[in-house]
């Protein structure tokens, strides 16, 4: 067993840390207040290779391993979880899904600009009445000669208005249940494709979350990913890896809040000494550090399993379940360590606390992770 990072992994982590400090920190409070997407910053992240990190260089990706990806996600998430969710969706849902299951033509046309960061992608599974219960897809895709006709509504789509390429899951044969679901690549300019309202959210306010409406949208047959009926497996396999990215996001939110609380506890004085010298604060810091380390081990283990080509579905569900709980616990305590200052925007921890909550909801709620884990244990 080896707990050391490689030099390459450390270089990626340091590059992400420097980028986050230099480019994401400034303006993060204003972007959150105004619910403004970090356009310029995401463009730079693409130029630096953060948007297609694990994609083969022959498709314009970074050719890095999942451990490097997790390290970069943690660093970006410490500062701006709205930027990191755009990064996570593009890397582990859109690029991974296309590289693993797309054909050569689809990779040339769509994966290359997505992996290089030239274009942004979105992953569209959830619907108004199909969130956790993802097999209940109502969006339909009907074959009509050399194209499909898409009708339906997708909800809560990250990168909803900023994406150019949308991976859309739809029902091609309702009688077959989840085996009648297929996956498609839809271009933003398609006629009949309308971007709906932007959600006004508790956290990750800089991320653009939209509903999407499809009315008789023509999608060429060559834009179907895999065979008809493969769409649900496509979505589930993609989410197995996506959950590693969100677990790393949760880890980053927790470690960002912990670092702020640690520094503040050494500066703030009460009763004649820094609050870090009061045992109640020391114990909070000890609990935070321990829980973050445990979460980090689960996140790294799931990334390592993926890199080794081993089964990681169960490990990624555990990593997301645990890291998201740690993100909630640590951010709440970080606000407490800051006292009244923790309750105002200037000190960042209140935003991290609001951002933490979503990690227990998207890419499968905590209850869904427990379903995935328990089914795997009992199988
Ligand atoms: N990996 C691979 N295959 C899986 C799987 C997994 N984790 N989970 C289920 N499957 C397969 C099953 O093996 C089964 O296939 P077969 O019939 O061929 O054996 C098929 O999927 C159906 O599975 P179930 O019978 O278990 O279906 P179910 O309806 O009882 O439950 C579920 C499935 C696990 C609850 C699933 O619906 C689920 O994961 N729901 C959560 C949806 C989700 O995570 N959405 C995230 C949207 S994207 C997002 O959120 C992005 C973002 O915010 C940034
Ligand atoms: P529901 O499924 O209605 O769940 C409500 C509650 O019931 C939850 O607590 C849930 O855990 C619980 N529950 C449901 N079923 C069970 C069960 N069987 N056992 C126990 N408890 C259960 N989706 C996308 O496809 N693409 C995206 O890019 C995307 N981005 C998102 C961004 C944001 C900001 C948000 C809020 C959501 C996003 N989602 C996205 C959707 C997200 O994945 C869903 O919100 C999530 O899967 C939960 O679905 P739901 O909201 O319909 O809740």
UniProtKB/TrEMBL annotation:
Residue ranges of every copy of the Acyl-CoA dehydrogenase/oxidase N-terminal domain listed in the record: 6-118
The organism's place on the tree of life at top rank: Bacteria
CDD domains in the cross-refs: SCAD_SBCAD
Domain Acyl-CoA oxidase/dehydrogenase middle: 122-217
Cofactor(s) the protein needs: FAD
InterPro entries named among the record's database cross-references: Acyl-CoA_DH_CS, Acyl-CoA_Oxase/DH_mid-dom, Acyl-CoA_Oxase/DH_mid-dom_sf, AcylCo_DH-like_C, AcylCo_DH/oxidase_C, AcylCoA_DH/ox_N, AcylCoA_DH/ox_N_sf, AcylCoA_DH/oxidase_NM_dom_sf
PROSITE patterns: ACYL_COA_DH_1, ACYL_COA_DH_2
Keywords of this entry: FAD, Flavoprotein, Oxidoreductase
Claim: rRNA-binding is one of the keywords in the record: no
Acyl-CoA dehydrogenase/oxidase C-terminal domain residues: 231-378
Family indicated by similarity: Belongs to the acyl-CoA dehydrogenase family.
Protein name: Acyl-CoA dehydrogenase
């Amino acid at each position: 067993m080896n707990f050391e990072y490689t030099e390459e992994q450390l270089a990626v982590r340091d590059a992400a840390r420097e980028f986050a400090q230099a480019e994401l920190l400034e303006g993060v409070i204003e972007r959150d207040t105004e619910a403004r997407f970090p356009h310029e910053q995401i463009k730079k992240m693409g130029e630096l290779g953060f948007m297609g990190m694990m994609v083969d260089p022959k498709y314009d990706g970074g050719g890095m391993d999942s451990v490097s990806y997790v390290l970069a996600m943690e660093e970006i998430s410490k500062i701006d979880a709205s930027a990191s969710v755009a990064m996570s969706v593009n890397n582990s849902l859109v690029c991974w899904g296309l590289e693993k299951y797309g054909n050569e033509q689809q990779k040339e046309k769509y994966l290359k600009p997505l992996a290089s960061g030239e274009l942004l992608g979105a992953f569209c599974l959830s619907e108004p009445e199909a969130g956790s219960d993802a097999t209940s897809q109502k969006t339909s895709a009907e074959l009509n000669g050399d194209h499909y006709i898409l009708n339906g509504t997708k909800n809560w789509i990250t990168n909803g208005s900023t994406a150019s390429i949308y991976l859309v899951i739809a029902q091609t044969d309702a009688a077959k249940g989840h085996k009648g679901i297929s996956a498609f690549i839809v271009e933003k300019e398609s006629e009949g494709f309308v971007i709906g309202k932007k959600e006004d959210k508790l956290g990750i306010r800089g991320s653009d979350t939209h509903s999407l409406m499809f009315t008789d949208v023509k999608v060429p047959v060559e834009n179907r990913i895999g065979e008809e009926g493969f769409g649900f497996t496509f979505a589930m396999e993609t989410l197995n890896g996506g959950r590693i990215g969100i677990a790393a996001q949760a880890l980053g939110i927790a470690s960002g809040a912990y670092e702020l609380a640690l520094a503040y506890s050494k500066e703030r004085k009460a009763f004649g000494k820094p609050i870090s010298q009061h045992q109640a604060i020391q114990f909070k810091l000890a609990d935070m550090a321990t829980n973050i380390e445990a979460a980090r081990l689960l996140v790294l283990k799931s990334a390592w399993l993926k890199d080794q080509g081993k089964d990681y579905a169960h490990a990624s569900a555990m990593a997301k379940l645990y890291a998201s709980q740690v993100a909630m616990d640590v951010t709440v305590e970080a606000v407490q360590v800051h006292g009244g200052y923790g309750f105002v925007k200037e000190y960042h921890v209140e935003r991290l606390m609001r951002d933490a909550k979503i990690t227990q909801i998207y890419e499968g709620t905590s209850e869904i992770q427990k379903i995935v884990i328990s089914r795997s244990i009992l199988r």
